[in-house]
Each structure stands twice: as C-alpha cells, then as structure tokens.
Design a protein that fits this description.
3-stranded antiparallel beta sheet; 1 helix; 3 strands; extended; mainly beta
Length: 70
C-alpha cells in the first residue's frame, strides 16, 4: 500500500519494564499518561451479556490523576 512504512510490523514498544503500556494523551500543552483495562463477562447466563466489554482508564502519574479529579 502506498504510504505504509515497510517496517510497520517491527514497532518498538517503549517502557517494557512497566506492568502496563502507557498511553499518552496530548491535550493542548498538557500530556496525560493513562492505561486501560478491559473487563469481560466470562460465562454469562444471558446471551446479550456475552459480548459486553467495559473499558476503564487509569492515570499513570500524579499530574494525570489531578487533571481527571479536577
């Protein structure tokens, strides 16, 4: 495909020493660092709950935490 870098499969993930991979969100002059978790219903009794996914975002530093509490 035109415009797709040849090394797109060899992306280097930074900060492999963290238990989670940080996501940087730039809002104006602020950079917020967050990570997310996704919860799923493992063995639902109702078929409509089988595809239910809930994603939570958590701050990775005090500055990001202060922004969201703000």
């Amino acid at each position: 495909m035109p415009g797709v870098p040849k090394n797109w499969k060899s992306h280097v993930v930074e900060h492999l020493d963290y238990p989670a991979i940080p996501f940087a969100l730039n809002l104006g002059d602020q950079q917020l660092r967050i990570f997310s978790t996704i919860a799923t219903i493992g063995t639902p009794l109702d078929v409509t709950a089988q595809s239910l996914r809930i994603e939570h975002f958590f701050p990775m530093d005090e500055r990001s935490k202060a922004y969201w509490q703000g």
